[in-house]
Amino acid sequence: MEDRIIELLTPIVEEVEVDILKVSLGGGRQPLLKVVLDAAGGVPFDVLERISRALSLQLDAEDLIASCYRLEVTSPGFDWPLSSASDFHRHRGERLKALFAEAPTLMGENLGPCDNGVRLLLDDGKEKDIDMDSVLKIVRVVDWKRVSNRKKKTK
Q1: Residues 94-104: tens digit of each pLDDT
Q2: pTM, full prediction
Q3: I need a surface site. Which of 16, 116, 130, 153 has the fewest CB within 10 A?
Q4: What whole-number distance in Å separates Cα of residue 143 and Cα of residue 91?
Q5: Residue 141, number of CB atoms within 10 A of its CB
Q6: Does residue 91 contact residue 39 with C-beta atoms inside 8 Å?
């Protein structure tokens, strides 16, 4: 079922240059169809709303889900783990945090994907390749220095 929903959703998201991260349909009396989408710089609320309406119309036309259902179209939070080359391309230039089981946490600017992982520019100015097999997870974090510098420039 999720594969068919992705087929219906793909042309809709391609039009607005948004990536599909996850589609899941939960069970129960009123199942929840949850769609998680992302784009470089985030997905504006009005774009999520447009996609939600278009997908809802497609689902109704196809009569894919027999019962009443709830549709939730959302974007990921900062704690959404990044794991693929497309994730690292999409969030290039953003600050990332790599968490390891047995090593200290590393933070730095995302320089983009590398062999089986991501290259970070660490705070000390050194570049480090992070292998996905060695991390628990990699997430985005707010770069407070950049945010506060932006605020100072607009004043």
Answers
A1: 999 999 999 99
A2: 0.82
A3: 153
A4: 13
A5: 13
A6: no
Using one digit for the tens of pLDDT, what is the confidence trace for 58-82? 999 998 888 889 999 999 988 899 9
Q: Average pLDDT for residues 15-19, to the nearest whole number?
A: 95
Residues of the chain with CATH 2.30.30.520: 85-154
Q: Phi-psi category of 112—alpha, beta or left, where left has phi over 0 and alpha has psi -120 to 50? A: left
* Distant-in-sequence, close-in-space partners of 35: CB < 8 Å, separation ≥ 6: 5, 9, 20, 22, 23, 51, 52, 55, 71, 72, 73, 74
